[in-house]
Amino acid sequence: LAKTTQPISMDSYEGQEVNITCSHNNIATNDYITWYQQFPSQGPRFIIQGYKTKVTNEVASLFIPADRKSSTLSLPRVSLSDTAVYYCLVGSSGTYKYIFGTGTRLKVLA
Amino acid sequence: GAVVSQHPSWVICKSGTSVKIECRSLDFQATTMFWYRQFPKQSLMLMATSNEGSKATYEQGVEKDKFLINHASLTLSTLTVTSAHPEDSSFYICSARSDRGEETQYFGPGTRLLVL
Questions:
Q1: Residue B108: which of A43, A93, A102 has the nearest Cβ?
Q2: What 3-state class would DSSP assign to B96?
Q3: Which of B4, B43, B57 is facing A101, going by the closest CB pair?
């Protein structure tokens, strides 16, 4: 089974840009890459989704290289409220095989 | 938009009893819903894919007779944990994919199950 790995934890200061990577070497052709934020005892909250190249929305950017074996979530200016666990999810409705990454615990310091 | 609810938010039950968890898409139709399980400090693991009007597809290692899934309408899927045991204690989270052709899954708030 394909593994989707992320760094276990990261620390950052308020106002800094944070980049979190996800490695998904066995990504399938039809798979999308989606990033979620999760607070304790809550369901994951959608951040951004992409298939290739770069996607940007009002809260984040997602960078996907040409080989799609990894992806990077970029949070432009983090605040204390961004302290959470961030997950990448790889999969598609074509196969219904969805694999969550191992999760990255981001701690934002004042 | 894209709101998913779950009920109950938490449940405590005795070993051997059955527990039903509901998952509803509130403002969109979802032919496909998913059920995940998350143990403390761990990532989410897909348990099964639920399609309206058909049998659910279970992931390897998930007992279909223990985790009964019913997807009777385009906005409701239920997960019943039958004969629950303490090792079934976990955080159960559902998600729904909109019928508008999107690939995005929208997640419910989760249900904390504690089996005594």
A1: A43
A2: strand
A3: B43
How far is the C-alpha of A56 from the C-alpha of A79, rounded, in Å? 19
| B92: Cβ contacts below 8 Å, ≥ 6 apart | B21, B35, B36, B37, B38, B79, B81, B110, B111, B113
Please enumerate in sequence order all residues whose Cβ is within 8 A of that of B91, keeping only pairs 6 or more positions apart, or say none.
Answer: A41, B37, B38, B39, B40, B110, B111, B112, B113
Give the model confidence (pLDDT) of B65-113 as tens digits. 999 999 989 999 999 999 999 999 999 999 999 887 788 999 999 999 9
Residues of A in contact with B34 (CB under 8 A): 98
Determine whether the interchain pair B46/A103 forms a contact, defined as Cβ–Cβ distance below 8 Å. no
- Rounded CA-CA distance A98/A32 in Å is 10
Q: Give pLDDT tens digits for A19-32.
A: 999 999 999 999 99
SS3 B110: coil
Residue B96's Cβ-count burial label (10 Å; 0-12, 13-18, 19+) is buried
